Amino acid sequence: MNARDEILSRVRKATAGVQAPEIPRAYAQTSPTPDLLTLFAERVADYRAIVHQVPATDLATTVRQVLAVRNATRIAVPDGLPPGWTTGVTALSDTPPLTPADLKDCDGVITTCAVAVAETGTIVLDAGPGQGRRALSLVPDYHLCVVDAAKIAGTVPEATARLDPRRPQTWISGPSATSDIELHRVEGVHGPRTLEVIIAT
Amino acid sequence: MSGERTDVVWLGSPAFPKAAEKALADDRLRGNLRNATTTIRGKRARVVGERPDWAELRDAGAAIKDATLADLAGHLERLEAEVTAAGGTVHWARDAAEANRIVTGLVKATGETEVVKVKSMATQEIGLNEALAAEGVTAHETDLAELIVQLADDRPSHILVPAIHRNRAEIRELFARQVPGAPADLTDDPAALAEVARRYLRERFLAARVAISGANFMVAETGTLVVLESEGNGRMCLTLPETLISVVGIEKTIPTWRDLEVFLQLLPRSSTGERMNPYTTVWTGVTPGDGPQDFHLVLLDNGRTEALADEIGRSALRCIRCSACLNVCPVYERTGGHAYGSVYPGPIGAILTPQLRPDEEVSASLPFASSLCGACYEVCPVKIDIPRALIHLREKAVDAKRGHPSAERAAMKLAAWTLGNPRRLSAAQNVASLTARLPLGRPSRTWPGRRRIKRLPGPGRAWSRTRDVPSPPPQSFRRWWREEGEEQ
Fold first, then answer.
1. A16 at the B interface (CB within 8 A)?
2. Which of A94, A117, A196, B41 could cysteine-pair with A50, CB 3.0–4.6 Å?
3. pLDDT tens digit sequence for A86-102
4. Cis peptide before A34 (omega within 30 of 0)
5. Could A7 and B274 be called an inter-chain contact, meaning their C-beta atoms sit closer than 8 Å?
6. To the nearest 10°, the Cα dihedral for B350, B354, B355, B357?
7. Which of A114, A97, A150 minimizes the C-alpha distance to B282?
8. What residue spans define the domains of chain A?
9. pLDDT per residue over A171-190, tens digit each?
């Protein structure tokens, strides 16, 4: 018998007559907090990300300002990002794909997101327009993410319901971090050491 | 120190009491562990306390895992079909040797001699790094704690934080000595130490063509794999190389995408004490233009189907490797992970290791490496009744030695007879108070003013060898109550 058939037959033998229980789903599906935007902003900031809230009309100006403050001039840009956000900087298009070395040497990356989760302060990218492939938001040391307020879900169940598992996803909760030394959290290991979030209302 | 290893346990691992005795004498180890576990317990309690529906989340988590196991064959077949349809290749491995053969073969087929690795319990369990090394392939661990363990030629001692037994000063010393390019004036500031790891690994990530990972969850209905991590080393490995090989235990399956919503809430809060871990990567097979274009999934049995066949023992297969049970365990906090002789230490290890590797020497003693206080059960996000499983495995261990009269069994019978009747109890306590002739040792730590009994006579000798038995009080509580009561 090959390995596949043998393992499956062992599993069937081990579980013969075992009944699957009903799954109780009495846990919260929605957040009790009415102001998801404020909750999201607080929870993202808790991870020591930099957070701004601006009216959608001021978005392009704010993006330019935060990039200028950082002296960030060479910015990796995924397909589908509104072109107005990168006026005044050198936008490095990912078509054709930037090399890992290009990504390492640029000053940062700007993306949008597919969904955000207020309760956990999480941003989810799913390679949709304005988000790009996974490497794009990983290798640069600075990630600027623009979150449209309409993308903010209250809870994890609301977020997973909006997402397609067949698309590659990255869930991001703050800058990269480690707790491996005495279980003390240190921000900034292999992923972007700075995460800046602009919430557009 | 790393030593030879069969899969799961290290070769020649002594029985738990012997290994624990050595660990208990190491004051620095105990200090490091106490600091770390105290920190993590506080963080976990805070973020779990935030969720009024924590009990409901645990109920759902446990039920999803049980439902998965009840029809595991069906879910695995679905998983295989979905991964294949999405451009991945599925392999099946009955045991560690078969898994290592498959992975080594896949790596060699790429022509590469170096691979980057994401921390994975499954690859620890099968001893993959050693198997690759034997075939001339160097595996670079990229998780900070795994890197510390690898550079120190040490063994992991915790599921989540394998280097928990090392403090920052020890890590500084190790990095200064072992990491090429570490600054001469390196301090023991954790941020500075993380920076050394970042620089050291960055070039390896960018140059790597093959990565090896495990997975926290596999969604059967869509063929989706999920890895939770913190540092970004996982994202690097799962995204940049051309070839990705994931070795995953068959019990990591969950039936539906929706089920993930439960575990994404349970796992980060239970393991690192965060509302959410910094990074989670989700992928299904191969996505053109995004991530590895050659994806292999190796489904690992390696003793799991044996555990699955045990009605009580199978609950250990619900485990999502959060390590909350280690962090609250009074035995783990004092002995550390190495005493368990297994890649799976702590309470979960004490019920998992004996089931995965019943024939190893250390396995027979592990179900006894517990005071049955139940703290592990209280914090388990998937409600594994570890004390119940421990007792069950103790019975099995005792049954395996049947033929010799068991002192513990006889003692329990005697205790039941004594406690069943107040007069017998009173008489027994009077006898116990008269035991002034027992050999007394050092002062008891738990009972001020009393001394420890060096060893009990007769069949109690084995019991007192590994325990601090305080000398009996001169007066029993019952007698004190009687006398005090009369005075009032």
1. no
2. A196
3. 988 999 999 999 999 99
4. no
5. no
6. 130
7. A114
8. 35-200
9. 999 999 998 888 778 888 89
Q: Which of B263, B289, B304 is the last residue of a domain?
A: B304
In a domain, B368, yes or no: no
Return the number of CB contacts < 8 Å for A and B. 252
Answer whether residue B8 is part of any domain. no
Number of domains composing chain B: 2
What does the pLDDT read at residue B51?
96
d(CA A88, CA A96) in angstroms, rounded, equals 22
Q: Which domain holds residue B180?
A: 16-304
Domain assignment present for B131: yes
Nearest CA of chain A to the CA of B230: how many Å?
5
Spell out, as residue ranges, where chain B has pLDDT lower than 70: 1-6, 11-12, 402-412, 429-439, 444-450, 453-470, 485-488
Identify the pLDDT of residue B1.
Answer: 44
pLDDT number for residue B135: 97
- Asked if A128 has any chain B CB less than 8 Å from its own CB, the reply is no
Residue B316 lies in a domain: no
Q: Which run of H or of E encompasses A124?
A: strand A122-125
Residue of chain A whose alpha carbon sits nearest to that of B99: A3
* Partner A contacted by B96 (CB < 8 A): no
Interface predicted TM-score (ipTM): 0.97
B92, β-bridge pairs: B299
Contact A154, A119 (CB under 8 A): yes
The CATH number corresponding to A35-200 among 3.30.450.40, 3.30.70.1230, 2.30.40.10, 3.40.50.10420 equals 3.40.50.10420
pLDDT at A123 over 60: yes
Where does a domain end: B304, B331, B350? B304
Establish if B308 touches chain A: CB-CB under 8 angstroms: yes
What is the CATH classification number for the domain harbouring B70?
Answer: 3.40.50.10420
Q: What is the mean pLDDT of chain A?
A: 95
CA B471 to chain centre: 35
Tell me whether A154 touches chain B (CB under 8 Å).
no
Interchain pair A21, B144: CB under 8 A: no
Phi, psi (deg, nearest 5) at residue A76: -75, 140
When scoring A22, A27, A185 by the number of chain B Cβ atoms within 10 A, the one with the most, hence best to mutate, is: A27
User: Quick check: A113 contacting B, CB < 8 Å?
Assistant: no
Neighbour count for residue B133 (Cβ, 10 Å): 12
According to the model, what pLDDT value does residue B488 have? 53
Q: Enter the tokens of residue B146.
A: 């795994």
Beta-carbon-side half-sphere exposure of residue B215 (alpha carbons within 13 Å): 29
What pLDDT, on the 0 to 100 scale, is given for residue B417? 75
Residues from chain B contacting residue A97 (CB–CB below 8 Å): 289
